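Dear colleagues,

As part of the handover before I leave the project, I'm documenting each prediction I ran so the next person doesn't have to rerun anything. This entry is a single chain, and its sequence is reproduced below.
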Amino acid sequence: MRADRGEVAMGSLDAEHYVLEVRLRRERVPSFERYPFSLPALRAFDRLELHPAVTFVVGENGSGKSTLLEGIAAAWGFNPEGGTKNFRFATRASHSELHQYLLLSKSFQRAKDGFFLRAESFFNVATEIEALDKEPCFGPPIIDSYGHRSLHEQSHGESFFALMQHRFGGHGFYVLDEPEAALSPARQLAMLQRIHQLVGQRSQFVIATHSPILMSYPDAWIYQIGEQGLERAAYEDTEHYELTRSFLNSPRSFLRNLLD
């Protein structure tokens, strides 16, 4: 799972390497037969070296990619349900104990910003923002940092994009779990643009995704979860790319074989 640092190229010169690698303290794991350590992503997990700009983790549903990202986010200090280090709400204690066994190797640089976007619980983040803004406060409303408009008054996709456009300020460490969940292909391309802008503002991203569009970010490192756990893969060698390409090259033939 270790990567060649010599492969770092486009976008990396402006990025900032806040987290160099993520290591699992395997000697402390009570059992690899129990959740979450029994997941494919974690059974053989040792360490995950991160690209200074963008690192993707991809895999099938149930492979453990979201659990791994949740563990990284919680180990950094983010709220497990999403948000920044300042969010401390909990609607349901559903996160795993993984973060207690992860060690983040950090650089001497310190991030000035950060956020954990978790698609499945972003509704709870929006609700917490509204609740906090109802409390007495001498500063400006929190929602001002998200574009001045309630996230609940926007579509799911609009609220995701408002978060990245307004709340993400650069010089940050951003963990995104399936950010494409509510985005059209056009919006996914716009998200790629925004990610690139933020990389140029010394930001680092770790992203779990199913989207071949997002995965195409130039020179990103892609870790694919397979039978051997996490392994580096070229974009064109990922199952997501190969399956999408096969379908788009001949959709009628593809569907005929699938449905017959």
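The first helix runs from residue 40 to 43. The first strand starts at residue 19 and ends at 24.

All the best with the project,
I.
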